[in-house]
Amino acid sequence: MRLYGVLMLGLCLCVPVYAQVQPDPIIDVHLHALSADGQGPPPQSFCAPSTGWAPADTGAGWGDQFSAIFKNPPCAHPIVSPMTDKDLMDRTLTILKRHNIYAVTSGSKVEEWQKAGGDRIIPGLMFNLGPDTPPSVKEVKAMFVSGQYKVLGEVGIQYQGIDPSDARFEPYLAMAEELDVPVGIHIGPGPPGAPYFAADKYRARLHSPLLLEEALLRHPKLRVYAMHAGWPMIDDMLAMMWTHPQLYVDVGVIGYAIPRAAFHDYLRRMVEAGFGKRIMFGSDQMVWPEAVEVTIESIETADFLTKDQKRDILYNNAARFLRLTPEQIAKQQRGE
C-alpha cells in the first residue's frame, strides 16, 4: 500500500496541470435586458447578418409585413429568440461568460440581470422623453449618485422625434456632465420603416450625428457616444469625429442588421479616416443572444483591421472611455 501511494504521488507530480485559458476581455457598451416578448411574441427569427430587407407592399400595412419577416426569415440559419424571460437572460449571460464580455446593459430587466450576472452587467438607464412622463432630472441624478446606474443610455429620444441638442434634453446632459456620467445616445437606424408602425415621430434626418453638435459645444466635458455610429450618415459622422475629438461611437445594430459587406465598408471609412481609437464594440442585443457573437464575428472578420485595431474596438477604447482603473482591467482580464 505504501509503494502504491508513492507511485501515485509520482504520477500526480508528473502529470501537467493545464489552467483554463481565459479569453481576452470584451466590453459591449450596448446590450439590453428585456422581456422575451420585447420584439413581439416569441419566437422571433432573424437573419444575422442581414441579407437585406424586402420592399413594402403598399396595399398592406408595413407593420404586419415586417412582423412576418421574423416568422419566416429569408435565410437558412436564422438566430431565434428564446421563449421565456429566464431563457433569454440565461443564454445571454452564458455567451457573456464564454467570451469574457462585460456589458453596459439597459432595459426593463437590468436589475434582475445584474443580480444574476454580477460584475459582467454594468447597469445603464434606458431613457426616453415620451409618451410617458420621464423621470425628473432630480430623480435621475439620485439614481447615479446612489450607484444604481453607471451609464445614461440607451437614450432613445430619436424615436420621439427629438434630437439630442433639443432643449427638453438639455437638463439631463447638464446633470451627466456635472457627475461625469457616460451617455450613450441612439443616433442611427431603428427598425426599417419605423414611422409606419413602431414610432410615428421617427425621422430619417435624425440619423445625422450633426444634430449632436450643439449639445457637445454646450457640454465640452461630457462623455458621450453615438450608438450605431450614425449609420448610414458616414460623412456627417466623420465630420463630427473630426470636429469633436471627445466623441466616441459604438457599432451597435449595424454589426448584424445590415449586410456584412455594408458594415465593413462603413467601419473601414471610420478607421481609414484615423478614428479607430474611438470606435467601441456594441451588440445591441435585444432578444437574440447570439447577436452578440455575430457582431463579434463582424469585427474579427474585418480583414482591413490589424490585431491591435480589433482589440481597441473590442476592449481598449471602451476601457478608456469608461475610465476603468488598472485594477478593474486586471480583474476583467482574469474573467472575474
Please, could you describe this protein's structure?
- About 40% of the residues lie in helices and about 10% in strands.
- By secondary structure, the protein is α/β, with parallel strands linked by helices.
- The chain has a single domain, classed as Metal-dependent hydrolases (TIM Barrel, Alpha-Beta Barrel).
- An eight-stranded parallel sheet has the order 1-4-5-6-7-8-9-10. Strands 2-3 form a two-stranded antiparallel ribbon.
- The chain is globular.
- Mean pLDDT is about 95; it is low at about 1-20.
Q: How far is the first residue's CA from the last residue's CA?
A: 42 Å
* Main CATH class: Alpha Beta
Count of helical stretches:
12
Please identify which CATH superfamily we are dealing with. Answer: Metal-dependent hydrolases
The structural class is alpha/beta
Low-confidence stretches: 1-18
Strand content: 5-15%
Q: Which shape, going by the Cα principal axes?
A: globular
Adjacency order of strands in the biggest sheet:
1-4-5-6-7-8-9-10
Characterize the quaternary organization of these chains.
Answer: single chain
Number of strands: 10
**Mean pLDDT level:** 93
Elements, N to C (H/E): HEEHEHEHEHEHEHEHEHEHHH
Largest sheet: 8 strands, parallel
